[in-house]
C-alpha cells in the first residue's frame, strides 16, 4: 500500500473527528495489508462510518472492522472496480461515485447500486442542491434524476476541479488556470499561469485555495474579487512539496494541506505554521 494513502487517510481522519488535533497522528490502516490497493477518496456518513473509494472497489471502516461493498456497472464489465470520487448525501443516505468514470449511486440502507450515466466523467462534486461533474471540457449537473449539460469551455482544455458557491462555479483546469462561471454563464479567468489544478477548497474566511500537481498552492481572496492571490511553493519554504492533493479546514480554523511529501498546516491568513513530513515523525518548522 502506498505511503501517500496513509498520509491522506490520517489527515482526513483528523478532520473528520473534531476533537483530534495536530498531535493525533498515528498509524491507521483501515484497509489492512491488501496488496496493490490505492485509495482515491474518503468521506464519512451520519453514523460515523468512513467510506473509502479505491482501485479495488468501495470499502467502509467503522473504527474496528473493514467491509468491502460490491458495486457493479453494466457498461463496464471488468474484474476490477476502480472508483474515483465519493459524495455523501445524508438526506438520501446515498453515496455517489464514479465507477470507471460512470456515475453511480449506492444506498447505504439496502446496499443497492444504480447506474446514472451513459458516458464516463472525470470529476464529481457536491454543488448547491445538485451534483456537478465534468467530461473533458464540458460541465454537467445531475439533479432530479437527470444529467444535463451546463457549459462547454470556449477553448479546448480539461476541467480538473469543481467548486460551487452562492455566486457561481469555480473550475480548475489543466492548462488555463482557475476559471469562474457566474450565474449568467459568463466566464472569468484567474491566474492562467497556475496550471494542473486538481482540487479547490473555500475556507470560512472566503478564501479559495487551488491545489496543483506540480505548481504548489494558490490562495485567492474572494472578498477582493479574486484578483488578490498568492502562490505557495516548496522553493519558498511554504510547502513540503509542490504536488498538493487536497486542502481542508479544522474546527480551530487551521488549514491542512496534503502533499506528496507530507502534510502542511496553514493559518487562514495564509501564514504557514508547520509541516509533518512522511519521512519522519517529527514536526518541521516552517517560515514564510
Task: Name the features.
288 residues, mainly beta, five-stranded antiparallel β-sheet, four-stranded antiparallel β-sheet, 47% strand, disordered N terminus, disordered C terminus
Annotate the secondary structure layout.
Blueprint: H1 3-16, E1 39-44, E2 50-54, E3 57-61, E4 66-69, E5 83-89, E6 94-99, E7 102-107, E8 113-115, E9 123-126, E10 131-135, E11 138-143, E12 146-152, E13 159-164, E14 168-173, E15 178-182, E16 187-190, E17 197-202, E18 207-212, E19 216-221, E20 229-232, E21 244-249, E22 254-259, E23 262-267, E24 272-277, E25 283-285
Antiparallel strand pairs: 1-2, 2-3, 3-4, 5-6, 6-7, 7-8, 9-10, 10-11, 11-12, 13-14, 14-15, 15-16, 17-18, 18-19, 19-20, 21-22, 22-23, 23-24, 24-25
Molecular shape: globular
DSSP, total strands: 25
Q: What's the number of helices?
A: 1
Q: Largest beta sheet: what is the strand line-up? A: 21-22-23-24-25
Average pLDDT confidence is 83
Helix fraction, binned, reads under 10%
Q: What gyration radius follows from the Cα positions, in whole Å?
A: 19 Å
Q: Low-confidence spans: pLDDT under 50, at least 5 residues?
A: 1-11, 13-23, 281-288
Distance between the termini: 34 Å
Main sheet makeup: 5 strands, antiparallel
Q: DSSP strand (E) fraction?
A: over 45%
Order of helices and strands: HEEEEEEEEEEEEEEEEEEEEEEEEE
Structural class estimated from helices and strands: mainly beta
Structure notes:
There is one protein chain. The chain has 1 helix and 25 strands. The strands form 6 sheets. Strands 21-22-23-24-25 form a 5-stranded antiparallel beta sheet, covered by helices on one side. It has one helix spanning 3-16, and strands at 39-44, 50-54, 57-61, 66-69, 83-89, 94-99, 102-107, 113-115, 123-126, 131-135, 138-143, 146-152, 159-164, 168-173, 178-182, 187-190, 197-202, 207-212, 216-221, 229-232, 244-249, 254-259, 262-267, 272-277, 283-285. It is globular. 5% of the residues lie in helices and 47% in strands. By secondary structure, the chain is mainly beta.
